[in-house]
Specification:
The complex is a heterodimer of chains A (305) and B (229).
Chain A: H1 2-16, H2 18-49, E1 58-62, H3 65-70, H4 81-93, E2 97-103, H5 105-116, H6 120-123, E3 133-138, H7 144-151, E4 157-162, H8 163-206, H9 208-216, H10 221-256, H11 261-264, H12 273-302
Antiparallel strand pairs in A: 1-3, 1-4, 2-3
Helix pairs in contact in A: 1-10, 2-8, 2-10, 2-12, 8-12, 10-12
Chain B: E1 2-9, E2 19-26, E3 31-35, H1 42-49, E4 57-62, E5 65-66, H2 75-79, E6 82-86, H3 97-106, H4 112-125, H5 141-153, E7 159-163, H6 171-186, E8 190-194, H7 198-204, E9 207-212, E10 215-220
Parallel strand pairs in B: 3-8, 3-9, 6-7, 7-8
Antiparallel strand pairs in B: 1-2, 1-4, 4-5, 9-10
Classes of the chains: A alpha+beta (305), B alpha/beta (229).
Function (chain B): Part of the ABC transporter FtsEX involved in cellular division. Has ATPase activity.
Family (chain B): Belongs to the ABC transporter superfamily.
Main location (chain B): membrane
């Protein structure tokens, strides 16, 4: 009896404030879509950074057998163990160097697998195709050039790469977009909450006759408040559902189809479906709880119990 | 059943108290008229019993409970033992007669079976048998008040509070309503009724409590409306 009674009250309430409900749904959907989007953007950035990005500043890639045939820098053949030892001691002696880490081709293969695990390129690769490298952490990241002049062109060195220069500009852009998304999200969130508070106020007012009678006959405050809170929660949940749909459709059209970035930028590793799907429960939970809480606090002000 | 100990009530932003040092007791099964001109404190008196307001000084006991010590979440439970009837009926216009009465049972979580049994019973009692499916708008004022009384009585309260229940009704209809309230009183329910209706008070010859400017000025068994009116 109770459940059915409460449900019918919710239906009546949502229909009565249809325009307001619609506004709540749209603003919750937009703010949660932006929220999910910015979470995914963060995932995307960390996917692209790979294993070494945050740990070192400069990578010195050494020639392997394959490079000896194809790369001009490696014309004198693959790197020898004496050359490796020499490079390492030279690096240790340099005052700008903080730390040197040697990465074997097996380790390189492992890290590559971790980053590009689901890309078709990874399956065709074997460990001996990977380059050995020295990963160097500098005391001052700006001093990259010192390492480059010292080791570029040396026997056994294929290339010296400033780890950050490659992706930093892109990451700055993504980061900026992310902050913009978060700001807009916060704004939309405030709008959504204010709309919910206002909706509750209006529907508490339009139902003051019912709630007054409920109070008189001794309905518990929970019983009087439940329909309002559930209304907000239902509207929020619908909004969250729309937001989830936007995220799924968004990934599909940006990465797989439509914009098809995965084809155009096939060297970049994009976030997978698992990243998107793992965000959905969080989005739904926030969409359910936040409006319910907002309604609860609005009721304390607008509904005398 | 009801006890006021030296009760005063001052509303915020008002200098004159709505009730001043009122003390009285209403026993189980009594029928009490509450009279006095507008602004004399009748409504405040009833609102204190319903705990819509709290006292500024003094204590109100209802059904053996000190309302000042009753925590907010227990108030609904207290109100379930009270029935209330108002001048403006306070029915839900979009529900039928039966649904209006059932509403009082639904919101306190009575089972469907109980509701199905008790609603026709109480509607018979108030003389509305056969009008279960009418809408309140289709009924006369007297009939609407009977629905309101049915709703107030359906949970078998120990105490019925009526705030000018005949205020909107013609004298003949009012007599019918009073007979009904008298019948409810005879089942053992205490009735406290605020009214301006001189004829009714004079005819019924029940206990009369008169308030004037917030003070209790008369408490008379088998009284009349007033000497000077």
């Amino acid at each position: 009896m109770r459940a059915q009674f409460v449900l019918s009250e919710i239906g009546v309430g949502l229909r009565r404030n249809l325009t307001m409900t619609f506004a709540v749904v749209v603003s919750v959907a937009l703010s949660l879509a932006l929220f999910g989007g910015s979470l995914l953007m963060r995932d995307q950035v960390s996917t692209m950074k790979g294993y070494w990005y945050d740990k070192v500043n400069v990578s010195i890639f050494l020639c392997n057998k394959g490079d000896a045939e194809s790369d001009a820098n490696c014309a004198k053949g693959a790197v020898t163990s004496e050359q490796k030892k020499q490079i390492e001691t030279d690096l240790q002696k340099m005052p700008v160097v903080d730390k040197v880490i040697y990465e074997s081709s097996d380790e390189a293969y492992k890290h590559y697998k971790e980053q590009f695990g689901d890309s078709p390129l990874a399956s065709s690769l074997t460990p001996d195709q990977m380059q050995e490298s020295f990963r160097v952490k500098l005391k001052d990241p700006q001093k990259y050039a010192v390492i480059a002049t010292a080791f570029d062109g040396r026997d056994g060195v294929q290339s010296v790469q400033d780890q950050k220069s490659v992706l930093d500009n892109l990451f700055e852009l993504l980061n900026g977009m992310n902050w913009a998304a978060i700001m807009v999200m916060l704004l939309m969130l405030v709008v959504a909450l204010m709309l919910i508070v206002n909706t509750v106020r209006v529907s508490a007012f339009s139902r003051r006759r019912e709630t007054g009678i409920m109070r008189l006959v001794g309905a518990s405050s929970f019983y009087i408040q439940a329909p309002f809170i559930m209304e907000a929660a239902v509207a929020g949940l619908i909004g969250a559902g729309v937001a989830c749909l936007m995220l799924v459709v968004g990934r599909y059209f940006i990465i797989d189809n439509g914009l098809a970035l995965s084809e155009k930028l096939n060297l970049i590793n994009f976030i997978g479906w698992d990243a998107v799907l793992s965000k959905l429960p969080l989005v739904l939970a926030i969409g359910l709880l936040m409006p319910a809480l907002a309604a609860f606090f609005a009721l304390r002000k607008y509904l005398k119990v | 059943m009801i006890r006021f100990d030296n009760v005063s009530k001052v509303y915020p932003k008002q200098n004159r108290p709505a009730l001043r040092e009122v003390s009285l007791e209403v026993e189980r099964g009594e029928f009490v008229f509450l009279v006095g001109s507008s602004g004399s404190g009748k409504s405040t008196f009833l609102r204190l019993i319903l705990r819509e307001e709290r006292t500024s000084h003094g204590q109100v006991h209802v059904l053996g409970k000190d309302l000042a010590r009753l925590s907010n979440w227990k108030v609904p439970h207290m109100r379930r033992q009270l029935g209330t009837v108002f001048q403006d009926f306070r029915l839900l216009p979009n529900k039928t007669v039966a649904e209006n009465v059932a509403f009082a049972q639904e919101v306190i979580g009575k089972s469907r079976g109980e509701i199905r049994k008790s609603v026709p019973q109480v509607l018979d009692l108030v003389g509305l048998g056969g009008k279960e499916d009418r809408m309140p708008g289709e009924l006369s004022g007297g009939e609407q008040q009977r629905v309101a009384i049915a709703r107030a009585f359906v949970n078998r309260p120990k105490l019925l509070i009526a705030d000018e229940p005949t205020g909107n009704l013609d004298p003949q209809t009012s007599v019918g309503i009073m007979k009904l309230l008298d019948r409810i009183n005879r089942t053992g329910t205490t009735v406290v009724m605020a009214t301006h209706d001189q004829n009714i008070v004079d005819q019924m010859r029940k206990r009369v409590i008169e308030l004037e400017k917030g003070r209790l000025v008369r408490d008379q068994a088998r009284g009349v409306y007033g000497y000077q009116h």
